């Protein structure tokens, strides 16, 4: 007997090389059978998904769930978008630990905690011991790894390099939003990042975002970005598909945007890097503010957005429509000589940022011919699972976790999100099962003490670790 049978779906799986009508039997949270037909009498619950696409659960390798004011919004938005596991690229992990049992809707979350210069470490910290201790402290709280958010808040190149090395020594995952005090969130920063990572394992975040035409033209930058990755097979990466970015509207005491990305955006559109520039960019709809409305985060444009920015003393999240569709296409589709994708995964940089577009923009990419359906599954589930070392995910093979995303292919919308054989979402309605933190052995003790549910991963057995020329 099965707990659930998913009947009459069009099943696509990279790992099993399936693209066909199949039934799936689920028992005790695992995939138990995938075959042409399973008799209805064998199941407690039947989900008929005729004319729908059934794929291994989407794993979004770059999201932001844990943010002030967003509360459960990020989890809800991801589950509605068909995501079953995600990497939060900022943290802090202690907040994820508090939230994951309460309102994660079953989502599995790995946290790469951001290091902020001036707060976590000095911008030019030279003492290795201090860096080592900070990383250790974060990993012991359950984080999967460390993120340097250099594009927004840079360290010096020397300090950045030491953070990369110390993260490696502690066998944790390192992700980089490129940029140091010498460069920025652009193709120069990416060139520098590849050098700083050297031959160690490392992850370059949202590759498309360094190709916005700030140094050369967009297409030349995109070609250089993929060529840099082709020459550095040790580097893991993802790119996203949204036109809008995500940044902070917050001003410093000198009346300038705190985030260097926000300054880039204003400059790129020809606005001044001050209050008047922000006002004009918002009024021209070259910038939007996003805030929590009801249970989700929503984009606000025009005068209402500017009023929110003023009312909150600039401390609001903002988006600028700055991503190049040419760079997005190249990053999503380009392959290495061996047939592997240059950029491992399609991510969103979403979660609580309203751009959870893996299905919404990813399937049109398939219709356009940029990817085939199996490749879509490879980039949204198989590769993410492999890179992160999630051995029981990324495929619908018998014995794997029953993490499944079901999609209405005409509407480009997830209709069902199933995690560990439990339904988290049907047609936009959510069921709140507890989630789990994806951690390493370093985080287990603390999570046990806190009573937080977790999955332990050995990064040394992941593709992230083993693709590396050490
Ligand atoms: Zn991000």
In short:
31% of the residues lie in helices and 26% in strands.
SSE topology sketch:
Layout: E1 2-13, E2 18-27, E3 30-35, E4 43-48, E5 52-56, E6 58-64, H1 73-80, E7 83-88, H2 93-103, E8 108-115, H3 128-140, E9 145-149, H4 157-169, E10 173-177, H5 187-197, E11 202-204, H6 218-230, E12 235-239, E13 247-248, H7 260-268, H8 275-283, E14 288-293, E15 296-300, H9 302-311, E16 317-319, H10 325-333, E17 345-346, E18 350-351, H11 358-368, H12 373-388, E19 404-408, E20 413-419, E21 422-426, E22 429-430, E23 436-439, H13 441-450, E24 454-456, H14 463-466
Parallel strand pairs: 1-4, 1-5, 6-7, 6-18, 7-8, 8-9, 8-23, 9-10, 10-11, 11-12, 12-17, 23-24
Antiparallel strand pairs: 1-2, 2-3, 5-19, 13-16, 14-15, 14-16, 19-20, 20-21, 21-22
Helix pairs in contact: 3-4, 5-6, 6-10, 8-9
The structure holds zinc ion.
